[in-house]
Amino acid sequence: MPGFDLNKLHSNRKQEHLKLSLNQESNNEHVVSGFEDYYFVHNALPEISLEEIDTRITLFNKELNLPLMISPMVGGIREAEKINKDLAKVAATAKIAMGVGSQRIAINDNSLNSTFKVRDIAPDIVLFANLGAVQLNYGFGVKECHKAVEMIGADALFLHLNPLQEALQVEGNYNFKNLLGKIKNICGKLDKPVFVREVGFGISAEVALKLKTAGVSGIDVGGSGGTSWLEIEKARLEKSNLKEAAQFFKNWGIPTAQSLLMVKESCPDIFIIASGGIRTGIDVAKAIALGADMVGIALPMLKYIKVSQEACLNYLKEIETGLRIAMFCIGAANIRQLKNNLNLKKY
Fold this sequence. Notes:
By secondary structure, the protein is of the alpha/beta class. It is built from 14 helices and twelve strands. An eight-stranded parallel β-barrel has the order 4-5-6-7-8-9-10-11, surrounded by seven helices. A two-stranded antiparallel ribbon has the order 1-12. The protein has a two-stranded antiparallel sheet with strand order 2-3. Helix 7 packs across helix 10. The longest helix has 20 residues, at 309-328.
């Protein structure tokens, strides 16, 4: 973009994203996650003890106390440095996974690396690096993907897909042509697992199968029902034809539960993360029962961490308690039994 300081532009955008995310009480009131369409059949005779419930999983040979990830959110601005370090401390204490926000800006400006680095705080957590897949059409390749992973000592890399979000940005990157082959190239050459995630509009069965065939190790469905990047980007727009058109996309996207089922059906053996509107322990239980291996939570974690680490840990304890009780009341002693439980029904 001639005449523009791209790093300043990206930094301002990240600051606006953070402010809008925190200040909107409900920015996705028109779209639901789909989990409300399901209920567990209560088991009055579970034949297990609540104390026996085991919520642990293993990922990348690391044990997690919960099948839970703090989803990618922030980075690249000074305020994000404290947020990411505080979230990493929470992840380490709770023994859960974490992803960082898009590292594109730090790839272009090494002085911003510290806003993403958390290994000194949390040396043992499962940690995901993160870049926009579309950047593979704008000069990024294996070198930049490796740099993102190396920058934070990540266990794996997220390549995120966000065509609608980019389309709603005046400064967006719109060229999504021939990305699949480039994703395949990264999967074949990067020395870490590559996962692909949507940012809030879901992944279909067809796209999931293409990604699996390309060599992707896992998929985060990133369905609709959580933070609405439509509303956030719309709020950033000046009055224009683009802003007027954006309002008609308020119901756009695949609800998280439906996206999860689509991906599970087309790729039954791939590692699946369900994110988008996960808010309670029962949501976590439903997602696992529908086929997810892990879930991701973003906005609630961001809001609680702005209060304190203790508030964030208390929220996670609430999630864990709800998950354990749900598992107890359907007779699932561990995550494997929850995932294969037939007591989840559709209304």
